């Protein structure tokens, strides 16, 4: 008997792209799927579009609460053995679900499957993206020891390049709902600490880059960079609370973030730094914490380190 797969689409005011995403989910070569579309309080025509699909999809409508709350609501409504994520401005290759099933059967120990992405602009024209994560081979990686030491050497792609085994994702969701954007970064670090991950060298989805992207951008402004520091600090703060074994990683990231904010001039950088210290500081007065925070700060000043959580 074939496994049921859930394709989970999260949407907020992306009505102009939503049909492409839903159609790509419905037109998979693997038929035993359920397509869940979570609308996070859209004010455009998204809900009319969702209604037009009738019983072909499972709609979940809610008040606007951000991406984490959309993930939580969609997962609660799902039944699949595997959960395939898809942002509503992206689209899947027709064979994505079929390929995932094949790989999952071949490597049953994998708790997450990640694959390469293609990229397009708002008009579906293919583009190159310099910050892309690319896997050259198909391989199983177990980062549990590395990430608990604060030294992961594998990074995972954006939302639409990720799929999770249900029993593993249930250890991560529900997640803190104040993470309103790039919630997949929280999930990525958590899953690396919980299970082996299968990396696939095939491009099985297309990520759309356009002017309305809230996080991934072709050209970053100073404000968007500062917002990344704030978002990363927020994610790390919650990871420290919910996954204590990630303390070393979180402390190192905190030290590096403090260095880069200190190296930026202007009142906005100081404002973000103050907000992080007051609301999202994982610092504790223990020798181990002090060592890792201070060492990361110092190493950043020597190496010009830049954050790695940047392509959600």
Relevant terms:
alpha/beta; 312 residues; 9 strands; Spore Coat Polysaccharide Biosynthesis Protein SpsA, Chain A; 2 domains
- Under the CATH scheme, which class of the largest domain? Alpha Beta
Helix proportion: 40-55%
- CA-to-CA gap between the ends? 34 Å
Q: How big is the Rg?
A: 19 Å
The CATH superfamily of the largest domain bears the name Spore Coat Polysaccharide Biosynthesis Protein SpsA, Chain A
What is the CATH topology classification name of the largest domain? Spore Coat Polysaccharide Biosynthesis Protein SpsA, Chain A
- Mean pLDDT, to the nearest integer, reads 92
User: How many domains, in number, for the residues?
Assistant: 2
Biggest sheet: strands, sense, closure?
9 strands, mixed
Q: Are there runs of 5+ residues with pLDDT below 50, and where?
A: 305-312
In percent, how much strand structure appears in the residues? 15-25%
What best-fitting shape do the alpha-carbon axes yield? globular
Number of strands: 9
Please state the second-level CATH architecture of the largest domain. Answer: Alpha-Beta Complex
Put simply, the count of helices is 11
């Amino acid at each position: 008997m074939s496994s049921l797969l859930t394709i989970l689409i999260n949407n907020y005011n992306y009505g102009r792209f939503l049909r492409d995403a839903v159609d790509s989910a419905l037109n998979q070569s693997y038929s035993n799927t359920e397509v869940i579309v979570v609308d996070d309080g859209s004010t455009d025509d998204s809900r009319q579009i969702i209604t037009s699909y009738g019983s072909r999809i499972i709609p979940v409508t809610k008040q606007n609460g951000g991406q984490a709350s959309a993930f939580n609501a969609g997962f609660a409504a799902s039944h699949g053995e595997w959960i395939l994520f898809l942002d509503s401005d992206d689209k899947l290759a027709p064979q994505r679900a079929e390929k995932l099933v094949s790989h999952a059967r071949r490597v049953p120990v994998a708790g997450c499957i990640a694959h390469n992405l293609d990229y397009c602009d708002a008009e579906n024209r293919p583009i190159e993206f310099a910050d892309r994560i690319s896997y050259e081979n198909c391989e199983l990686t177990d980062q549990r020891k590395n990430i608990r030491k604060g030294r992961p050497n594998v990074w995972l792609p954006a939302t639409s390049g990720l799929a999770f085994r249900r029993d593993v994702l249930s250890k991560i969701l529900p997640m803190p709902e104040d993470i309103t954007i790039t919630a997949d970064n929280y999930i990525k670090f958590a899953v690396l600490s919980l299970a082996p991950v299968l990396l696939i060298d095939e491009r099985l989805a297309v990520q759309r880059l356009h002017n309305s992207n809230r996080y991934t951008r072709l050209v970053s402004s100073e404000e968007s960079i500062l917002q990344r520091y704030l978002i990363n600090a927020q994610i790390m703060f919650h990871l420290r609370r919910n996954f204590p074994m990630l303390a070393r990683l979180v402390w190192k990231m905190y030290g590096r973030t403090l260095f880069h904010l200190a190296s930026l001039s202007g009142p906005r950088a100081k404002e973000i730094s103050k907000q992080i210290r007051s609301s999202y500081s994982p610092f504790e007065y223990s020798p181990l914490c002090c060592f890792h925070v201070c060492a990361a700060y110092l190493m950043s000043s020597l190496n010009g380190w830049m954050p790695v959580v940047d392509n959600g």
